[in-house]
Amino acid sequence: MKKFILSSILLFTCFFAFSQVKQLDKDQEPGKGNVEDLDWLEGFWTGTGFGGECEEVWMPAVDGNMIGTFRFWSEGKLVFSEFMNIVQEGETFSLKLKHFNADLSPWEEKDKWTTFRLVEVAEDAVYFHGLTMKRVGDEINLWLALTEDGVRTIEELKYVKREF
């Protein structure tokens, strides 16, 4: 009976996490939205994810660009960081980011970005293709779809708003 209950909880948790992340179909147009509607994301956020500690900082939107940074460390050691830009592109926007190792060597090529296209915007939530951010009070949950060796998983990051 214990195995059944634990299996049921695990199945529900996995289903919930997978349902949080939306995907665009191959030929589907991105959703419509305005970067300025993401003012709820502004600020300094700290929390956990990837088995370690995380921080994100988001600045107010200026000229259709909302700039952010991310850093992840584990056991007191910086593992990687990101430079992020939510960019207005006509009636839609996308999240573009570059990853950097602790020594600032880049993951992406010089002229390449990891890009998340907009699926939809909701009140205090934004859904990108493979990435969701939702704010509830002074907390933000982020769900990221990852695929490695053909296996899709969802990584959940949980943040709390902090003062600088």
The low-confidence runs, each spanning 5 or more residues with pLDDT under 50, are: 1-18
CATH architecture: Beta Barrel
What order do the helices and strands follow?
A: HEEEEEEEEEE
CATH fold topology: Lipocalin
Overall domain count: 1
CATH class: Mainly Beta
> Separation of termini?
48 Å
Query: How would you sum up the major sheet?
Result: 10 strands, antiparallel, barrel
The CATH homologous superfamily is named Calycin beta-barrel core domain
Q: What global shape is seen?
A: globular
**DSSP helix fraction:** 10-25%
Strand % is over 45%
Number of helical regions: 1
- In round numbers, the mean pLDDT is 88
Strand order of the largest sheet: 1-2-3-4-5-6-7-8-9-10
List how many beta strands DSSP finds.
10
Structural class: mainly beta
> In angstroms, what is the radius of gyration?
17 Å
Provide a descriptive summary of the structure in words:
This protein is mainly β. It has a single domain, classed as Lipocalin. 12% of the residues lie in helices and 54% in strands. It contains one helix and ten strands; from the N terminus they run αββββββββββ. It has a ten-stranded antiparallel β-barrel. Strand 1 and strand 2 form a beta hairpin. It starts with a helix and ends with a strand. The N terminus is likely disordered. This is DUF6265 domain-containing protein. Keywords: Signal.
